[in-house]
UniProtKB/TrEMBL annotation:
Residues annotated as the enzyme's active site: 320
UniProt protein name: 3-phosphoshikimate 1-carboxyvinyltransferase
Protein EC: 2.5.1.19
Gene Ontology MF terms: 3-phosphoshikimate 1-carboxyvinyltransferase activity
Sequence ranges assigned to domain Enolpyruvate transferase in this UniProt record: 15-427
Length: 434
């Protein structure tokens, strides 16, 4: 959030139950990739159910500034791509709050001709960018950072393919290297120890590129051209996470999601909720441009959620869901222990510190570790003033915790939900019985 923006407060009252059916706006990660690759491709792409969040609007605005033609209507977003060659913009490209935009765009622009500067808001300017500069430089890119951070200045150069093993599990870094590899000479290979979300691989294929995959690597031959597509973006599982966790708290709950993105690299929360005792039903699975989409039903266990440990690969795969999992942890019987999640400290906020602070504000006991949290179960929370810290997922996670608290909760900085999910509070009011 910029320092001039006004913070809004939202009061969340406790609920008696969660009931209803929802069709959620398009997945943020997929929308970014469709915007960026549609911007590079030849021809006019058309996307329905494109993410309504401010982050994906940043990706669209950037490709627009780079020469793509973007048309926004109530039904769809159309992107007429530049056919492989972006026009350097004399103004800096504003990535807003979006790490995905900045990191993936760096990969897309490093092999282009001309100079480009990527900037972001205060939160994005604090986030680590060396993780993309390093591999792209190894391919021959010329990228300047300020002490490892944005602004990111790229002087486009012809790149050479490389074989890269990602040091931290990061789909954004993997994507940056693949997007550069698409335009480099030779075959670029990315290897990862933990398989992160694979939307870039699927989107590249949807736009006509050949991408080879093994269990631990992805490779792409440089010099391939992308062609425009028409696509409906699946509902966002990471947005559904707030409602899935809310429903899991109420024994009489029944919540159904239609058209929800069920990509296996994104659906780990369903396994966690099942392990906690919730009943999850999945039906009508369909493949849309390689992305699985389906109907999901959640019902809570009659006698409360149990507890679990999330560590190792699971922590990486659940990285965006950990704030809401932590926020409902006090209401479980045995508590939730999170480890190997140090990456949470370099998200839109330090999510470990902010989750701990806000849980404590609600009266919970919680222990903070460098790479995680221990949240004991069997706790009662009371309504409190929550500091969202300009972080959309913190604002929404604590709105969910508020549903089972005693008394009302004030979410300070509630406007940040609009980064990924502007409809969040309205939909919460729709499904929460008070
Ligand atoms: C994303 C990857 C993840 C995730 C972020 C979106 C993506 O970040 O936390 O919200 O769309 O590729 P990292 O790549 O930094 O893990």
């Amino acid at each position: 959030m910029s320092s001039t923006e006004v913070q809004t407060e939202r009061i969340v009252a406790p609920a008696r139950n969660i009931l209803g059916s929802l069709r959620l706006p398009g997945d943020k990660s997929i929308s970014h990739r469709y915007a960026l690759l549609g911007g590079l491709a030849a021809g006019k792409s058309r996307f329905t159910n494109f993410s309504s969040g401010a982050d994906c609007a940043s990706s669209l605005a950037c490709v627009e500034a780079l020469g793509a033609k973007v048309t926004r209507t109530a039904e769809a977003i159309e992107v007429e791509g530049v056919g492989g060659v972006f026009t350097p913009s004399s103004n800096p490209l504003d990535c807003g709050n979006s790490g995905s935009t900045m990191r993936m765009l760096a990969g897309l622009l490093a092999p282009q001709q001309g100079s480009f500067t990527l900037i972001g808001d205060a939160s994005l300017t604090r986030r680590p960018m060396e993780r993309v500069r390093k591999p792209l430089s190894q391919m021959g890119a010329e990228i300047e950072l300020t002490e490892g951070h944005a602004p990111v200045t790229i002087h486009g150069k012809a790149l050479k393919a490389m074989d890269y093993t990602t040091p931290v599990p990061s789909a954004q870094v993997k994507s940056a290297v693949l997007f550069a590899g698409l335009q480099a000479e030779g075959t670029t290979i990315v290897r990862e120890a933990v398989r992160t979300r694979d939307h870039s691989e699927l989107a590249l294929r949807a736009f006509g590129a050949q991408v080879e995959r093994t269990l631990e690597s992805v490779s792409i031959v440089g010099g391939q051209k992308l062609q425009a597509i028409e696509a409906a973006v699946p509902g966002d599982m990471s947005s559904a996470a707030f409602f899935l966790c809310a429903a899991a708290l109420f024994p009489q709950s029944n919540l159904i999601f239609d058209g929800l993105g069920m990509n296996p690299t994104r659906a780990t929360l369903l396994d966690v909720l099942t392990a906690l005792g919730a009943h999850i039903g999945v039906l009508n699975l369909e493949d849309k441009h390689g992305e699985l989409v389906g109907t999901v039903q959640v019902n809570a266990p009659a006698d409360g959620l149990t507890g679990t440990t999330i560590s190792g690969a699971l922590a990486a795969q659940l990285i965006d869901e950990l704030p809401v999992i932590s926020a409902i942890a006090p209401y479980t019987k045995n508590g939730i222990r999170i480890r190997d999640a140090k990456e949470l400290r370099v998200k839109e906020s330090d999510r470990i510190a902010l989750v701990a602070k806000n849980l404590r504000a609600m009266g919970a006991e919680v222990e903070e570790f460098e790479d995680g949290l221990d949240v004991p179960g069997g706790q009662k929370l009371r309504g409190a003033v929550i500091d969202a810290g300009g972080d959309h997922r913190i604002a929404m996670a604590f709105s969910v915790a508020a549903l089972r608290a005693e008394g009302e909760t004030v979410i300070r900085g509630a406007e940040s939900a609009a980064i990924s999910f502007p409809e969040f509070f309205d939909l919460l009011d729709r499904v929460a019985e008070r």
